[in-house]
Each structure stands twice: as structure tokens, then as C-alpha cells.
Amino acid sequence: MLHMDLxxxxxxxxxxxxRLLGAAARxxxxxxxxxxxxxxxxxxxxxxxxxxxxxLFGPEMKPPLQALANVGLVLFMFxxxxxxxxxxxxxxxxxxxxxxxxxxxxxxxxxCALALAIAGEHAGDAETLPFVLFMGxxxxxxxxxVLARIxxxxxxxxxxxxxxxxxxxxxxxxxAWTVLAVVVAVAGxxxxxGQWKVxxxxxxxxxxxxxxxxxxxxxxxxxxxxxxxxxxxxxxxxLGLIASAWATEWMHVHFIFGAFLFGAVMPREGAERxxxxxxxxxxxxxxxxxxxxxxxxxxxxxxxxxxxxxxxGTLAAILAVAVGGKLLGSYAAARxxxxxxxxxxxxxTLLNTRGLTEIVILTVGLEKGVLDNELYSxxxxxxxxxxxxxxxxxxxxxxxxxxxxxxAEAERAALGETAAHRVLAVVPAPPGxxxxxxxxxAALARAASPCEVALVHxxxxxxxxxxxxxxxSSELAExxxxxxxxxxxxxxxxxxxxxxxVVSRFAADVAAELPEVVTGARPDLVVLPAGVPGYAEVRAAxxxxxxxxxxxxxxxxxxxxxxxxxYGSGGSGGAADAAALVALALAVSRGRPLVVAGGGRAAALxxxxxxxxxxxxxxxxxxxxxxxxxxxxxxxxxxxLLVRAxxxxxxxxxxxxxxxxGVPA
Length: 665
Prior knowledge:
The chain is built from 27 helices and ten strands. The chain has 665 residues and is of the alpha/beta class. The protein has a ten-stranded mixed sheet with strand order 3-2-1-4-5-10-9-6-7-8, with helices on both faces. Helix 4 runs parallel beside helix 14 (255-264), helix 4 (62-83) packs antiparallel against helix 15 and helix 9 packs parallel to helix 17 (341-351). The longest helix is centred in the N-terminal third of the chain and has 29 residues, at 94-122. The model has no long low-confidence stretch (mean pLDDT 80). Residues 19-394 form the Cation/H+ exchanger transmembrane domain. InterPro entries: Cation/H_exchanger_TM, CPA2_transporter, Na+/solute_symporter_sf. It comes from Planomonospora alba. It is found in: Membrane.
């Protein structure tokens, strides 16, 4: 008998626990779903035990709670299908498809192998084939909604890595749901009735796209005429949604597929306002009330008290397959498409997110009898671990500074600014004597095309207040002369093949204002004479490479000696690579040989560059050479240029760097 007072009390407890732990999870940088599932686990037999747990959430209470949770799941799956941007797949093409296949195939195969190993212990009354296929599908899943939330929280949906991960996750979702539909069909086809109904699933999907979709498109003009989402229009959407969910459940293919499919066939063209208003109405009910209940109810079925040492071994194997399969499969597929290593690891980390999708899949497996309670509990723990590890691991692999740099580039491209290789040179006084400095900057700018040199000169305000008379005339004359000298330097840079612009103004405090000017220009390289006002502040503020002109002889262009770089003689690999890149650009642009000093690593780099067509050799630094060194190393005597690497540098692709400089193969 259903006790209404106990049901209402359960609803209060479930919703309060979901909100509190969901908010706590968000405060520590985790998706709210992690807290909501933990709430269910804590309210279940794991913490409360059989006595209190059976009193509050006994066998007679779980069916009505599960029914409400399933209604929330229907609405949520409709929202997922409605929000799924099909352009994500078309826009990214082959890379997204390849990454999705790698991210699905490797964990699916490993999951099937693990299932075969544990089938005797956990398959129970279920047939081996659906159990094996189900484990493979569960291992291969990626939580598209949680992934989208993580990307949005960090602003990564606007950069290449975010777009690729969303596109790949969309393909993975389609693959995972397809496999799950097959598993559910096989598992539910035990009787004659189930067998013939399952055959209707494919024709039903065809009818949805060819017949129902054009009919739903009529909602757009009806919404336009009404000017808002009327109760009648919303009722039609809800009727179609529930009917679609019922149809797939009747076919023994589970109601989540009908709900998802109905969202996917909703109109897209010209339906932005309609979609927004539908989401505004349904997301509040589904996300705030019913969906948290689904995850709490899912947690109520987890009993960690029943696990023993052998279960811990199975959990370790599940985590190894789930995490290792996703990371290795995604990374290898991304590298096959020549995605850089850092971005490949970021993609793999993002696609390892399980969360919502995994819990839905596991709940289906438990309902269909494919999973036993023990394995269900272990798989829920796996879903929590893989979702919880995504944020911290992503910050390690793709730090916030790198994300900010990528977002700045995306914003610059969106504003139509020239995405040129930008070298910013801080020009000290007097500007007329800084020709070698500008020549050095122009030579380094030509390491990529298109390129630009920005000449920055800040002049302190005069100590005396300017007044009308001879004082004002003198200051205006000096300002005009400075601008003339800077424009002459810019013209020289243009003659050497680089675009050039001048930034010159008075400053109340040069040391304080110069770092703001440098960071606002978003350069790829800063050329900074030692000793200029604000030198330390600019180095601290700049996220890009910083080249310090340490010796007056450094920028001279008239010598005929070689360029030498101290590589591998100290400092980090990033600092040594940054110094070698600067030396390579100078050697090629000036037609000089490159000498790489510093032991075994130096010799290996010299041989590699020589094979790429660069006049490079290893050995001691010859007299008269222009010496470049990483400033993180023990600086050798007589170094002219010191290079500080950019923050979070990527490994150098030397072949691409040489090709960009125009060296014949």
C-alpha cells in the first residue's frame, strides 16, 4: 500500500539532498551530477543501512520514485536531442569522426574482453552476448551534456579543442545509443512478441525523419503567428514526445530512444525562438526537479557495503579499461589526424567524461536484467570517478593560461583582426638609434607569414607642466621628431617584408603602463632591451616568448659570423627550444650558418636541422658569432640575446618551423 505521507517526505529528502550535494560539487569544480549521485548513494543502504534505508526508501516507495524519475528522464533525453547541434559533426568532418571512432572502438573492444572474463560471475541469468555488448557500450560512452557544461564553464566551446570534442562526442553519442538499442533489443527479445516488435525500430526511425519531421516544421509558422509559445503548442510537443517514448518502449527498445529521437527531429531552421522557449519551460522542470530525482534514485540502488576485496579487484579492472581505453583510443586517433600532442591529450581527457549518459545506460542495463546489483554499483563508481577526474586532469593537461590564450586568438579572429605573427619591440630612447633592434624584430617576424612588427615607445610626461609659450613648442618639436624616427624605423621593417605599426604616447609612469600596452597587443614574441623602464614587469606580464637584448652587439646585422645557440646546456626543454627557434630564424633570415652548442642534445638537433636543409652544425661557439641562449640556463659569457619561453609551450615541430622559414627541402 502506498503511504502518501511517506512519499512526500521522500520527495523532500531526495530533492534537498540533491540540491545540497549538487551545489557542493559545483563549489569544488565538479558537475552537479556528481553530487546528485553521491546523494543517492548516501541515502541508500551504503550509509543508512537496511533498517533506516528500508523505512524511508523501502520496496513500496521505490516504484513511485522511479516513475517520477523516468518522467524526468523522458524530458531530459528530449532536451538532449533538441540541443544536439548537428552542425558540430558537419563542421569538423574527418577529424571528429576519426577521434570518435577511436574513442569508441578501443574502450568497446576492451570492455567486451573484460565482460567475457567476468561473465561467469556477473552475467547471472542474462545471456552472454547482450552482457558482453552492453559492457562494451557502457565503456565507450561519453556524457555529451556534462562535457558541454565543462567546456562552457571554462569558455572552451569557443576554441578548436572544444569544438572538436563536442563534435566527436556527438558522434560517440550516436554510436553508443545505436549499440545500446541493439543490446536492449537482443536482451528484450526473449519471447515471440518481443522479437517481431523490435523489427519495427528501424522503420519507426525512418518515419520520424521523413514524415514527423516535416509535420513538426509547421510549428514554426504557428509560433510566429502567435508570437509566443502558447499552451496549445506546448501540449502538442509534449503529446508527441510522450507518444514517441511510448512507441519505443512498446517496441522493447526503451523509452529513452523515443524521447531522444523526438528531440532530434524537432525543427531547426528558423526555430531558434521556439526552441529557446521550449527549453526554458521544460529545462526548469526536468533539470531542477525530476532529473536530480533520477540520479538520486540511481544512487539508491548502489550498495557499497556488499562489496568485498574481490569486488575491489573488479573495480580496478573496470577503471583501467574505462580510463585507459578512452584516453589511449582518443589520443591515438587524434594524433593520426595530426592534432598536436597537447590538444590530443585534452580531447582524450574531455571524452573520458561519463556522467549523465553513463548513468542512463547503466540504469537501462539494471532494468533489463543485463547487470546484477554488484556490477551496477561498481559501474556507477566508475562513472563518478571518470566524471570527477575530468576537471582536475584537464587543468593539468590544458592549463587555464593556455585556454585564455586560445580564447584571445578566437576573439581576435571573430573581430576580423589579422591573425598575423606579431613581434612587439619595445623601442627605448632615442628611437633614431634603434635601427638594429628593429631589423632584429623584422627578421624574427618573418618566421611566419603573414607577419607584423609593432614598435612601442612610451615617453614620460615632462616634469614641468606644459604651458603656452616656448616650453610647449619645445615639447611638440621633440614629439614630432620622435614620431618621425619611429615611422622611419617602421618603414625599414616594411622594406624587410613585415607589416609595421607604431604605438607611441606620453605616460605618467612608463614602468607601470608598458606591461599593459604589451599584453593588450597580444604578441607572439616580445623584443625587450635590458634595462628599459618596466623590464621586470613586462617579463612577468607577458605570456608569450620574451627576447632580451642582453648585449649591445646582439642586434647588429652587419657582421658575417654565424649564429650560435646554447641548446641543452641547462634550463628546461621549453626554454632551450625557444632559444633555438630564435637562433634558427635569425640564421635563415640573414643567410648565416647555425652552430648548436651544448652536448648530445645539441648534436641531435643539429643533425635534424641539417637533414631539413639548414646549414647547421654542432660544436663550440666560434668567435664573432651572434650568441643566443635560454635565460633559464647558466648564461654563457658574451651572450647577446636571452630567450624566455612562453608559458606552457608546445613541443616544437622542427620540420614545420623550417618550412615556415622558406628553407628548400
